[in-house]
Amino acid sequence: MTIWRPLLRCRLCWRITLGVFALIVAVESVILVPSGRRFERTEWQRVAARAQIMVESALAGARGADAAKAASSVIGLYGLRSVAIYDSRGALIAQGGEPPAPPFAAARGDMAGLAGTGDGGRTLTAAWLSHAIARATVVARVEASAVPARLRAYLLRVAGLVGIIVVVVTVGTMLILDLSLLRPLLRLRESSLAAGADPEHAEAFVLGTRRRDEMGELIAAHDAMLAQVAESRRRDREMAEERARFLTHHDPSTGLPNGAALLEFLAHQGEAANPVTLLHLNVQRFRLVNSTYGAQAGERVLCALARRLQHAAAPGDLLARIGADRFAVARGGEIPPHEAHSLAERLLRHAAPPIEVSAGNEVSLAVRIGIAQTDGPDVSGEDLVSRAELALSRTYEDPACKYQFYSADLAEQAREHQLLAQDLERALQRDELFVVLQPKFELARDGAAALSGAEALLRWRHPERGPVSPAKFIPIAESTGLVDALTELVLRAVGERIRAWRARYGWSPRVAVNLSAQQFGRADLAAWLSRLLAESGAPPGLVEVEITETAAMRDVLHSVAAVGELRGLGLRVSIDDFGTGYSSLSYLRRFAVDAIKIDKSFVDDIGRDRHAEAVCSAILRLGQSLGMRVVAEGVETAAQADFLRRRKCDEVQGFLFGKPLAPVAFEQAWLRDMPAAHATALLARR
User: Fold this and answer.
1) Beta strands 80-86; 92-97: pairing state
2) Which of the two residues, 23 and 350, has the higher pLDDT score?
3) Of the segments 72-76, 474-478, 637-641, which one has the largest average pLDDT value?
4) In this structure, is residue 426 part of a structural domain?
């Protein structure tokens, strides 16, 4: 049954079998119909021949009436129903039995023609030329009802034989098909379906064959196809894996290895116990290129820079792009520090020339580098990258420093920076930060000094560390994103003081608030400050915003627009630390600022350095020529104050005139007993 089950379920086999069966039946039908007719004709001839023999025997020697009597004597024998004798002219000579059959032409020879009657073939009419009576034709009607029965029996026998032949041929055909065609086809079908369901392992479904016929060729072609499919899938998989590996280990824009590839390289070097030198490069002002010329132009600039860095690096070095504006160069093997210096200098030289960003436009990219070297087997790739990044971060503190080596001191400072950043965040929550006010004064020619305003300064008293210098915690706030919260704290305190003074005295001095370079670069600076002023309740006309010269000159176009927006809010704007950056008269002329503040470093050297005095004099003349107020900060000696008074400095600020005080102490020292005339003069000057 197991053998027949696939045969019975095979649709193709059933079609072939039914086709063979129909063909055999058609052939047998073609053969059987003539055969049946021949059998029937033969039976008729046999009946007619028996009737002829019997009639001719009775007519032998009979004449006239004797012929009629002889014809009648055989009626009823062997199924004879009638006998008629006709002469050559067709006249009836004698007859016996039923009415005689009409004459019809007899064939030449012993037997005349045969004809069936209209009674369903039960009688047969036969005609022949008589041998007993000269020139006479005998017509006899004979009972033939047995002929159809014998014909049916004959046909049944033949049909049965045909049926046996059909069954034998069909079964044989199916067996032959099963052995030579079906089983190979079913195997091919199952193999193809299985390979289609699991193309990754198509080679596991090859059949294998030793046949040398067409089926063997088909199986061989099928196996070859599966092998090709498996090989193709294997190649596709390898290519996909290689492509995925490339994408996960390379930057799509520059084609350079990425951060993952760098860490993998460092891990391999560590496994081989090879020392590694890593240079971490940061491209400064790259965001400005993107914002000015578009992201696509920025990518083209980075690709051009990547090609330059590749030329600068040695053949064995790994150059990787590890960030939007960051690259890394890693070199395996022991190299002395002076070689690392040389590599850093070479990278800086190659990166320095301007790069064409569009037709007629070029940009110059400033690059800073942090350098770290493994100092033992326990330094992982991540640690080395962190060290190089830490060294890079120190280059931002000194504009003249283009590259910096990592040292243990840097790590300790970074740890201290992190701890202090955590403490600063807690300090905001615990109200450890507070505002002090340092007065600013106008210098009179007679040597007197009158209060003209104040500067709000933020102070921090740590519960364990004690007072923390602003020079220490302000950069931490900028790097951790807390500087906005500090500015909000200062503005709230300033707004509270101004509201209290106006309520108490009917007026308030103007208070200056410092903005960081990061804040001054905000696109929404005016909207942000407007919201803070509204929340603090401080009138914009009583608030002055101080920005450093370095921040103002970083992006001149933005600075010009920002200063205009701030003054549009009613704020006064001054440039702090003037003279320390890279100011330009042509740029300063475009800034509609209210005041410039001479940096403390120049004021400190008054009386000791004629160059510092020359700078101070130049700044004073510059401010006066541009209609800007000039403020000198850090005035601590009478000689400094006298120098500034003689050169008509507008305002001074420093310990000589007044130290920073808490708001309550400031009020007691400078506002409570202020003459009404001076207060009125301050109000008039606003």
Assistant:
1) antiparallel
2) 350
3) 637-641
4) no
Q: What is the pLDDT of residues 560-592, one digit of tens each?
A: 888 899 999 999 999 888 876 555 555 677 778
* Sheet containing 403-405: order of strands: 318-323, 326-332, 276-284, 366-373, 403-405
Mean pLDDT value across the chain: 82
- For residues 294 and 352, the answer to whether their CB atoms sit within 8 Å is no
Residue 615 and residue 612: Cα distance in Å, rounded?
A: 5
Residue 501 in any domain: the answer is: yes
- The secondary structure of residue 163, as a DSSP letter, is H
pLDDT band at 92 (very low <50, low <70, confident <90, very high): confident
My answer on whether 244 and 254 are in the same domain is no
| Residue 297 sits in the same domain as residue 379 | yes
Integer CA distances (angstroms), 357 to 22, 364, 585, in order: 84, 10, 28
CATH code, domain carrying 624: 3.20.20.450
Confidence band, pLDDT 50/70/90 cuts, at residue 118? very low
Please write the tens of the pLDDT for every residue from 270-327: 888 888 999 999 988 787 788 778 888 888 888 999 999 999 998 889 999 988 889 9
Show the domain range for 476.
432-668
Tell me phi and psi for residue 396, to 5 degrees: -70, -20
Three-class SS state of 174: helix
Q: Is residue 96 in some structural domain?
A: yes
pLDDT of 343 higher than 50? yes
Q: Kindly report whether the global pTM for this prediction surpasses the value 0.90.
A: no
- The partner residues of 630 in beta bridges, in order of sequence, read 596
DSSP secondary structure code for residue 250 in this structure: B
Query: What total of structural domains would you count in the chain?
Result: 4
Instruction: Tell me the residue type at 531.
Output: R
Of 142, 146, 145, whose CA–CA distance to 54 is shortest? 142
CA–CA dist 293, 685 (Å, integer): 45
Give the C-alpha separation, 280 to 283, whole Å: 10
Q: Hey, is 628 helix, strand or coil?
A: coil
What is the token pair recorded at 321?
């792009």
- Both 656 and 572 in one domain: the answer is yes
421 occurs within a structural domain: no
In terms of domains, do 312 and 348 share one? yes
381-395 helix and 259-271 helix, angle to the nearest 10 degrees: 120
Cα 33 from chain centre: 76
- 378, 444: one domain: no
DSSP bridge pairs for 454: 439, 511
Task: Assess whether 232 and 294 both reside in one domain.
Answer: no
Q: What is the pLDDT of residue 435?
A: 94
Same domain, 321 and 275: yes
Say what the pLDDT of residue 109 is.
40
Q: Look at residues 355, 390, 406 and tell me which one is the last residue of a structural domain.
A: 406
pLDDT digits (tens, 9 = 90+) for 188-221: 777 778 777 777 777 777 777 777 777 777 777 7
Distance CA 371, CA 388 (A): 5
Q: Which two tokens stand for residue 247?
A: 């994408």
Packed helices 408-430 and 470-480: angle between N→C axes, nearest 10 degrees:
90
CA-based angle 352:354:360, to the nearest 5? 180
